[in-house]
């Protein structure tokens, strides 16, 4: 590995590069500096570079013109890739030893010898002539496929694009993508037909198929039915396993014969398509796993067929395509995060990150670091640089739950980020530009908080560009059976026994309950019933006690007692019960639930009717050994 380097990107010495030895050294006009500049506005020893704590630190030497990093004056600053140091009229870029790039602000003596625009590459086949036309056709087809791959997000969409690229590259009459199924049979996945009389029906010799699939060779064959010649190239999966092949053919008598260059071109195309298929397959697996994890954590789709649910889904369809900030209000547990995820999934950002932040779960002292990140050494305990939630959500969606709990001290910076999409990490000096859509949610009345001075008015108006109220579950009772069945389907994998549905009495109890905890309470009730039940159907007694409560059962009247004179009653003094705090009682309940479930936190949370995240927090707060 080489040395770190400072490159002059603006000033009298533009283009000069200076290696920084591990011992460090000075920067200035003096001859004893490791970075010697000719800028007369620079002091003889303007600043120094020192090696400290595993990295270089820039230290100002107290010069009158000061030292600036990323536009801000510094006394000490840990250098990192991308930092710009300004002294006098000179600007220097820091490049660490592991590599980096410095963009010169001033023109240097250089000459462009060739240039090709992206559009010209795609049109290369129509402008070239002779043998060059064939090479240009191959390259243009590969470039066209690469362009389309940026937009394709499923394997089903890849097939037609691959066939069109193969047909264009070889000037073929038709091209087909053939894949092996689970039984080993080969079937057509996609095709591209260039002639009006072409079809997707093939008759291929077995030995040609075996040579491609078993020996992984690209081949050219002639003498096929209809006087056709063809080319075939294998498609490979992970580990080189044969997935299928790309096939292209044309009438042999009407066109020049294909040669090795054409076969190499089809082989290159098959490798590109194989890599794209593997990437899309892995993406689909990750998306399914992510969807499953979201559903297990209560962050799945917004479910329902009632008029209220349809109104919410219509709202999602309207606002999702835009980048406008959305504020969702409603009772706790009503499904605000589900609506936020639906907005993300239906937006142009759906292929990027959805980052959820619970503002109520973070302490006031650390919330700025959580949202915006921090630099190494920014505060006690900041031993490494940390990426904040805003930075992690770049090009995606940031969901701020319980935004009403955001401290006033953090609201000003948050407003600026919403307005400018730019921020600095805690302890940092370089502004970071992001592209983030914000969806916020709260169960509090932000308007009333504004009147009380607990929430910034300008932030309130900035958040509520589009405002929607998510209805509570009691306002859409017809959705309760649908949601109950949905949660049952998603959560029954937690147990080994078969759980197929709800007994009629259990479903009736679910339907008549008021659900003050909304969808979250329903989910917890279903999870509790799955964990604690022991039959194929969830019964009334498996549900939480408050759901099965009804009129008290009638008891037989006692036989009349013979009349007796009232006897004197001796009143014995009763020792007062020892008063105990709610925290003590809650801690005992958590310990008992964990003991009853053998330490299974998911089952314990279901028994206690709280979220698992809440249980983890309480276990930590109460110091419970779990």
Strands in their spatial order, largest beta sheet = 2-1-11-10-7-8
Average residue-wise pLDDT:
83
Low-confidence stretches: 550-577
Query: Approximately how much beta-strand content do the residues carry?
Result: 15-25%
Instruction: Calculate the terminal CA-CA distance, rounded to whole Å.
Output: 47 Å
Largest sheet: 6 strands, antiparallel
The dominant shape is: flat
Please count the helical segments.
20
Q: Tell me the radius of gyration.
A: 35 Å
Helix content: 25-40%
Task: Give the helix/strand class.
Answer: alpha+beta
Give a verbal description of the structure.
- By secondary structure, the protein is of the alpha+beta class.
- The chain is built from 20 helices and 25 strands.
- Strand 20 (422-423) and strand 21 form a beta hairpin.
- It is flat.
- The relative contact order is 0.06.
Brief summary of the model shown:
The chain has 626 residues and is an alpha+beta fold.
